[in-house]
Amino acid sequence: MAHGLGGTKDSGLEPFAEALADGGLDVLAFDYRGFGSSGGEPRQRVDLAGQVEDYRAALAAAASLPGVDPSRRVLWGVSLAGGHVLTAASGRDDVAAVVALTPLVDGLAAGRLAARHHPPSALLRSTAAGVRSRVGRPVMMPVVARPGELGALTLPGQLEAYTALAGPTWSNEVDARIGLELGRHRPVRHAAGVRAPLLVQIADFDRSAPPHAAAKAAERGRAEVRHYPCDHFDVWPGRDWFGPVVEHQLHFLRRHLTTSDRGRMPADTASQ
Question: Which residues form the Serine aminopeptidase S33 domain (predicted)?
Fold first, then answer.
């Protein structure tokens, strides 16, 4: 389990982990390289390929933990990480299930969606910051800011929603070059290679991760799909749709992990 853009494991993931642990699963939540409690340099730079490798490393680490059945490992991701789990699981036979919550699976589609909701001047400012960061010294910008300010997420309500989740290791800054790199980010292409049962949970009014792109990935991945009449942050702890989202995840995982050949999910396990 890992976070989305600029997020850390202490920023809203714990309630998901606790709910899944209460349902009988062990949970391994981790921070990407350069973020939160993880090491690595440079700090606060979103390395898209590196984050997928971090998922694969976490998958391997989980297999070595006491009491873990390597044949029943699950990849769970939200937002940007919802695309990462498709890439990390593609082509593998040792993943038992995949959960992609409000996944960002197509950077080009996300760019078009951003153009609908932001004035051109705002997009030009973030693009210019990204260019400066790529050709010179790193340029940092806020992960989330108020409308009209420079930032990765600046739609009305996003600053309040994101900062309400913020944990002690979270820092409201990210290397601005991510805005340039997201255009080439298309984990939707890997969805057809996911062999494990796949759950895709879509916020139908998502202003950050295009819901139509998530639906396309779900179709390619032959996924079970759940829809919620809400925006991107409304599935998080403290919001209206957190409960149904977790309930659907548990229902999905119980069906696919509790089988005659795999044995039953343990009824009482601790969160890692």
Answer: 2-223
